[in-house]
Amino acid sequence: MQNQKQYFPMHTSSPLAEILRQRRQKLATLIDFPAVLWSGGSSPRNFPANTFPFRPSSHFLYFAGLPLKNAAIRLDGGKLQLFMDNPPPEDALWHGETPTCEEIAEKIGADDARPMAELEDYLENAATLPVQDAATWTQQTQFLNRWILPQNPPDGIDLELAKAIVSLRLTHDAGALAELRQAAAVSVQAHKAGMAATLTAKLEAEVRAAMEGVIIAHNMTTAYSSIVTVHGEVLHNGHYHHRLQPGDLLLADVGAETGTGWAADITRTWPVFGKFSPTQKDVYDIVLAAHDACIQEIAPGVEYSEIHLLAATILTKGLIELGILRGDVEKLVKIDAHSLFFPHGIGHLLGLDVHDMEDLGDLAGYEEGRNRSQRFGLSYLRLNRPLQPGMLVTIEPGFYQVPGIINNPKIRSQYQYSVNWERLEQFADVRGIRIEDDVLVTESGSEVLTAALPTSSQEIEALVNS
Amino acid sequence: MQNQKQYFPMHTSSPLAEILRQRRQKLATLIDFPAVLWSGGSSPRNFPANTFPFRPSSHFLYFAGLPLKNAAIRLDGGKLQLFMDNPPPEDALWHGETPTCEEIAEKIGADDARPMAELEDYLENAATLPVQDAATWTQQTQFLNRWILPQNPPDGIDLELAKAIVSLRLTHDAGALAELRQAAAVSVQAHKAGMAATLTAKLEAEVRAAMEGVIIAHNMTTAYSSIVTVHGEVLHNGHYHHRLQPGDLLLADVGAETGTGWAADITRTWPVFGKFSPTQKDVYDIVLAAHDACIQEIAPGVEYSEIHLLAATILTKGLIELGILRGDVEKLVKIDAHSLFFPHGIGHLLGLDVHDMEDLGDLAGYEEGRNRSQRFGLSYLRLNRPLQPGMLVTIEPGFYQVPGIINNPKIRSQYQYSVNWERLEQFADVRGIRIEDDVLVTESGSEVLTAALPTSSQEIEALVNS
C-alpha cells in the first residue's frame, strides 16, 4: 500500500489537477473538436520483454501530467476523459500494487475513466497526433481508421490541433516552470560533479558517469544522449572511450529530465587538466562574450534570428581580433564566414522535449509563413520567431574546428582571403567549445534558469580543481 | 582520424574476424540456405531525432561482432557479406569521421561490402529473423516480400535458421566468454559500489546511481532496467524513489553489457543500515544455502529443471526449520508450497540477451519436445534442458512475501495447514531476498563468473560498512 501511494513522483493531487484543468480549458478556446492523445508504450530493446525506459508522448504528458503507459486521454470542451486498462490481478506479483485507472483519474482531475476498448466509441471527429512507438501508432491508425504515422506531418484537424498545442506549449505556465527549474538545478549539479571528477578521470566515460550519476541519484533521467567528449568538434558525438590527454578540452552537453518529462539542456567546456591554455582561453572568452551578449538581448518581441546573428557578429568580431578572420565584421557575417567555426544555430525551444515540439517539424520553431533559410549560416537555426514571455530557449554559441569543414578544399578556396589559415593553425588545441544555458523570456527581459552554473574561465577552472 | 581508428571498442581486427569466421562456418554445417540478418536502427524516444541508445539485434551481433546501425549481413556457406551505406559526407559534421563500409568489412573479415540497396539482389531463398524496431522490420518485410514481425514466431526456413542459431548460441565460444567475463567483472564492481554507497544514501535512486555510475564509467550500458529497491517483493520493481528506512533490506538486480552486447546479471540483497536482523539473516542463509547447493550441482548432463527443484527442496527444508512451513519436505514441494515464497524460476540462459534468445520464445530455453509446465511452481521456469559445457546460466533463488500471494484468501485457505501464518508474521522485515550469480557450465562442473562478489551475510555486511 505504501508503494501505491508513492507511485507517481512529487505531485500532490490538487495542484496537478488544477494545472491540467487550465491547460485543457485554454485548448478548448482554440479548437471546437475533440482531441485524443495517446501516451504510447515501451519500445523493445533487444527482445520484447527487455524494453527501453518508458517515455510517454510529450503532448500526452502536457495534458495528462503523469507518465501513464498505454493510456489515452480525450479532451473536449475543457473536459478530460482517461482511457486505460487496469492491470490484471496477477500483474501485482511482478509489478506490485499500482493505482487503478479510477485513482489516477482522480489525481489528474479527469471527468471519467474508462477501459481502453471504450475509446473506440469516443472517436467521432477526433483529432490526434502520432506517438513514436509502433505498437501505439498502429493502434491509433486502427482506432481512427486513417493513417497516423510519426513520419507524416499532421493534416486537417490534426494540423489544427497541432497548431493549438504549439500555441499553448510555446510559453510555459507555473506548473511547467516548477518542473523545468528542477531539471535545471539537477543538471547544474551534474555539471559541477563532472568538473570535479575530471582531474582524477582517465576516460571521457568516467566524467559522464559522474554527471549522469547525479541525475540518476535524483531519480531523473537524461533528457537526451549525453555528449561528454574531448572531440567537441564532432557535434553529435556519442562516444565516450577517449582518454583525457594533457591539453584537451572536454565538452559536456548533459541535461536532466524530471519524472513528468520536463527537460534541461546545459553545455560547458573545461580543460581536463584544470587550466585553459592561452589559445583556449582566447577562444573561450569570445564564445562567452557571444553567450553573454545574446542573453542580454533576450526580451519579449525580440526576433530569435536576430539573437543568432548577434552571436555571429560577436564571434566574428572576436575572431578578427585574434587574427583568425580577416576583413569587415558585417561583410564576413554576410558571407557566413562565422559558420566555418559555428555551423549550428544559437539554440532552440526547450520544454517537454529538448528540442521542444520537434516532432511537429518546424511548426513550433518557425513563425507561420516562415521557412528555413537556404543560407549555410542560417539553415540549422531551429527557432525563428519573435520571443514571448514564458518561452524557454537555449543560448549555445560555440567554436569548432570541424575537419570536414576546415579541411574541405572548396571551402578553403572560397574563404581563402577571409580566414588566416596559418594563424588558425596556432589554435590547434581548440577543437570544440560550446557554452549553453537555458533562458526564460520574462516580461521584463530574461532569467537564466541554469545561472547557478558558472561560465567564466576562472570559475570553471576553480570547479575543475575543486 | 584518431576518432576513426578508435571507433569500435576493444577489438583488434584479426581475433574478431577469426571468432566470426568460426561462428559462420559452424552455421554453414547446419543450414544449406543463405541467412540474412539485419542489425536494426535506433528507436525514437519522444521525437524522431531524440533516440534511445542504439542496441543492435543480438543475432546480428553474434555473427557481425560490431554494433553497426542500419546494416545487414548475409551468411552463406561460410561466406560473409556486409550490406550498409556509407554515411553522406555532410554527416561527418555531426558525427565525425566514421569508418567506411569497406573498412568495417575488413575488420570483421567480410568477403565483400555493398550498399544496402544491393541486398535486394541477394535475397533468393534467404531466411531471416525479425529485429525489434519498426523501421527495420518494415524493411525486412518489404525486401523479402513476406511478413517479418517481431511478434510472429519464425516459420519454415526462418524456423530452421532460428534452431541453428540456438544450437550455436546455447554454448559460448572463447570470444563470447572474454566479453561475458568483462561484463561480469564490471557488474561485480557495480554491486560493491552500491553496497559501499548505501549507508550514506537516503533514496534507492542514490544507490542505483552509484551502481550504474560504475557501469557508465567503464563505457558499458546496463543490460536491462536495474532493480534497486527496498521492496524486493515486487519482482520487476522499476521504481527508485523510496527512502531507505531502518530495518530495510535493499535488493539490487543490476548487470552490465559490453560494447558488443554481452551481458551480466547479478542480484544481491543487503541491509541498508549495515546489519541483517536475526530474522533477515535466518532467511538470507536459507536462500544462500539454496544458491550454493544449486551451483554445486551444475555440471554437464544435469537437467536444469532438477536444479530448480533442488532449490525448491532446500528452501522448503529451511522454511520448515524456521517454522514457517509445516510438513514433509517432498510433499510440500509437490504441492508447490515453496512457490508461495519463491514464485519464479531458478534462472535462465545468459549471453547477448539477459534472457538469452528469449526473442525466439522458448526455442532456446526448452529442449525440443518440452513445453512449459502448468504447475505454479514450474510455469515460470525459463530453462528446461540438460546442461552442456559452455552454457552460461543464472542461479537466482529468492524469498519474497508478495502481498498478492500471501494475502490471497484462496491461497491462504489452500495452504492453511502447510504454512504457519502466525510464525510468518514474525518475519515481516523480510520482504524480498534474492541472490543471483552467473554460472558457466564447464567440462568438469561449473565456474561462477561473478564469484568475485561475496555472498555470505558477514561479507555483505562488511562491504556495506566499508
In brief:
The structure is a homodimer. With about 475 residues, the first copy, chain A, is an alpha+beta fold.
Report the oligomer: homodimer
Q: Tell me the Rg of chain A in angstroms.
A: 24 Å
Number of helices of chain A: 16
Largest interface: A-B, 73 and 73 residues
- Helical content of chain A stands at 25-40%
Query: Do you know the CATH architecture of the largest domain in chain A?
Result: Alpha-Beta Complex
**How many strands of chain A?**
16
Largest sheet of chain A: 4 strands, mixed
Shape of chain A: globular
Quote the beta fraction of chain A.
5-15%
- How far apart are the first and last residues' alpha carbons of chain A, in Å? 44 Å
Instruction: Name the strands of the widest sheet of chain A in spatial order.
Output: 1-4-5-6
Question: Helix- and strand-based class of chain A?
Answer: alpha+beta
Q: Please write the CATH class name of the largest domain in chain A.
A: Alpha Beta
Give the overall average pLDDT of chain A: 94
Give the full name of the CATH homologous superfamily of the largest domain in chain A. Creatinase/methionine aminopeptidase superfamily
Poorly predicted ranges of chain A? 1-13
Number of domains of chain A: 2
What fold name goes in the CATH topology slot of the largest domain in chain A? Answer: Creatine Amidinohydrolase
